[in-house]
TrEMBL record:
This is DUF4880 domain-containing protein. Residues 13-52 form the FecR N-terminal domain. It comes from the Bacteria. Residues 119-204 form the FecR protein domain. InterPro entries: FecR (IPR006860), FecR_N (IPR032623), Ferrdict_sens_TM (IPR012373). The lineage of its organism: Bacteria, Pseudomonadati, Pseudomonadota, Alphaproteobacteria, Sphingomonadales. One of its GO terms (molecular function) is sigma factor antagonist activity.
Length: 318
């Protein structure tokens, strides 16, 4: 029997199924149902967080030479515990649904086109087939589409950091008709029709139809489908997101809450009377309660929780 009891075994199996769905091509369609399942029972929340932590750690280990050479682990005494069975169920779902694992480029159904995705709250690093390291932020979807002439990656949604490997072929990231060519390292975030590119090292070039820009390290460019481009200095701490730390500089509370909510099933909601307050500081992306308490203390807001477990921040009643 699982050390978490019968409910834990049930929650672990369901968590494995949810993790598979959230890594699928229609993950957005499942978000509301997942959130309802996540907050319905503390066992659900605990099981999902355990599985996500195990999966993230396994993904990191798989990228090391030792991890790639290591045989599968089997518990002493034979057989699988229910928790191992939950992980196995998740892996089976990944295979059956065509969702690829950290070494996705080794098992893709087409040799030159590979889909990569991250789940809700997951930050994972993978190695592309040319040796480039890509770190995927929460709920990010990429398509690796390499050819003999170029290395092209399509970012469908989310944010990723690319540490480009040396190769005579150009490395191009495509997003909504715009292209980013880089020889060093850079962050690229796509939210709907908006695109943000942060240059960290090397030479970064951005093209959008007849327009083009070169970005030097320490600068970022923001473009939209229907507006002018804007280049600014890279905000202090902006590169810490790969460690799960989000940095804000004079940002409205509504925007801060939206950024935290991208990582968590439990949301932070802001009263309309406080949504325009501006925050400067850092928050842990995957700790919504700590973030809510920090914001409440910073602006002397009332903090409460609703029936779904979401955090609600409002100006004190007079």
């Amino acid at each position: 029997m699982s050390r978490h009891g019968g409910a834990g075994s049930r929650a672990e199996r369901e968590a494995a199924a949810w993790l598979a769905r959230l890594r699928g091509p229609d993950s957005a369609a499942h978000h509301d149902a997942f959130e309802a399942w996540y907050v319905a029972d503390a066992e659900n929340e605990a099981a999902y967080e355990r599985l996500l932590a195990t999966w993230t750690a396994s993904a990191a280990a798989a990228e090391t030479p030792a991890g790639q050479a290591r045989p599968p682990l089997v518990p002493r005494g034979g057989g699988l515990r229910p928790w191992h069975g939950a992980i196995a169920a998740a892996l089976a779902l990944f295979v059956l649904t065509g969702i690829f694992l950290p070494r996705a480029h080794d098992i893709a159904d087409a040799p030159d086109r590979v889909m990569l995705a991250s789940a809700l709250g997951e930050i994972r690093t993978v190695t592309l087939s040319d040796g480039t390291r890509a770190t995927l932020d929460t709920q990010t979807r990429l398509q690796e589409n390499f050819s003999q002439d170029e290395r092209r990656v399509i970012i469908e949604s989310g944010r990723a950091r690319f540490e480009v490997a040396g190769d005579p072929r150009p490395f191009i990231v495509e997003a909504d008709g715009r292209g980013v060519t880089g020889t060093g390292s850079f962050d690229l975030e796509r939210l709907g029709g908006d695109l943000s590119i942060a240059a960290l090292s090397g030479e970064i070039r951005v093209s959008d139809g007849g327009r083009s820009w070169s970005i030097v390290p320490g600068r970022m460019l923001q473009t939209s489908a229907d507006g002018p481009a804007r280049e600014t200095a890279l905000p202090r701490g902006a590169s810490q997101w790969t460690a799960g730390i989000l940095s804000f500089e004079d940002v409205p509370l509504g925007t801060v809450a939206a950024a935290i909510n991208r990582y968590n099933a439990t949301a932070i909601r802001i009263d309309p009377g406080a949504v325009r307050l501006r925050f400067t500081g850092t928050l842990h992306a995957r700790q919504p309660e700590a973030a809510a308490r920090t914001l409440a203390a910073a602006f002397r807001l009332d903090l409460s929780r609703d029936g779904r477990g979401d955090f609600f921040l409002a100006a004190p009643t007079k």
